[in-house]
Amino acid sequence: MRFGLQVLNHGIDDGLIAEVMAVAREFFRLPAEEKAKLYSDDPTRKIRLSTSFNVRKETVHNWRDYLRLHCHPLDQFVPDWPSNPPDFKETISSYCREVRALGFRLYAAISESLGLEASYMEQTLGEQEQHMAVNFYPPCPEPELTYGLPAHTDPNALTILLMDQDVAGLQVLHAGRWVAVNPRPGALVVNIGDQLQALSNGQYRSVWHRAVVNSDRERLSVASFLCPCSGVVLGPARKLVTDETPAVYRSYTYDEYYKKFWSRNLDQEHCLELFRT
Ligand SMILES: O=C(O)CCC(=O)C(=O)O
Ligand SMILES: [Fe+2]
């Protein structure tokens, strides 16, 4: 399956995963006045609490609150993270380190599966930024009228998603149909992002996914995004471009891509379509 998968033997301790979900839940239970200090609708902020997807662009809002954090290098960003709940910084930092290492192991496996050097993705994508979205979907009185997150693909390279063990909500588009991804105890969901689709010259597909909400239970998810640095030049790996398989995408910098992504709304055509040769 070349678009997304659930990994079970990921090597991240179950206890740590449970702690991450617990501090995330506690964070969203803080009084609104305390959380309000972190509110911003500016997507360039390195820490911000926001709602919906991109409140500056969209006309229909989504039923989601989220805390977005930059996570690498940790010592640069952690001091500005919430100090309440008290173990937030430590728990989330430990998890960020583990997720990064897992992401790099997945890069090696993906590179080799394409016939590239194991180090190809990691080297090409460069010293990567790592972002996190802690998503909180409150119960929604009219869930048929909106989404938690509408259909989108992730603009980065690879996303590792920790989902609520008790409440389902993620759906992926598979063969033209929306399929629910039911949480499996201890599993992490790995979504291929747009940049791996480009680097693999379309052999890997960044997965269309969305989050639905429900009327009686809140739901949490913690998405970790590995993202190329902004100046990195991206495009199909040279070895994958042949007479039979010409380059599907032109080369571009991640900065150019990311700006394009955030200048649009979700639910439009795949952003990568705008980078075809
Ligand atoms: O909540 C989910 O399961 C999906 C979250 C997601 O797709 C994202 O944060 O990009
Ligand atoms: Fe996503």
Automatic annotation (TrEMBL):
Q: What is this protein called?
A: Fe2OG dioxygenase domain-containing protein
Which part of the chain is the Fe2OG dioxygenase domain?
A: 128-228
**PROSITE patterns linked to this entry:** FE2OG_OXY
Whose protein is this, by species? Panicum virgatum
Name the family the entry cites: Belongs to the iron/ascorbate-dependent oxidoreductase family.
- Record Pfam families: 2OG-FeII_Oxy, DIOX_N
Name the InterPro entries for this protein: DIOX_N, IPNS-like_FE2OG_OXY, IPNS-like_sf, Oxoglu/Fe-dep_dioxygenase_dom, Plant_2OG-oxidoreductases
Q: Does the keyword NADP apply?
A: no
Its ancestry begins with: Eukaryota, Viridiplantae, Streptophyta, Embryophyta, Tracheophyta
* Molecular function as annotated in GO: dioxygenase activity; metal ion binding
* Transmembrane annotation, as ranges: none
**UniProt KW keywords:** Dioxygenase, Iron, Metal-binding, Oxidoreductase
Keyword check for Oxidoreductase: yes
**Named cofactor requirement(s):** L-ascorbate
GO biological process: any one?
defense response to oomycetes
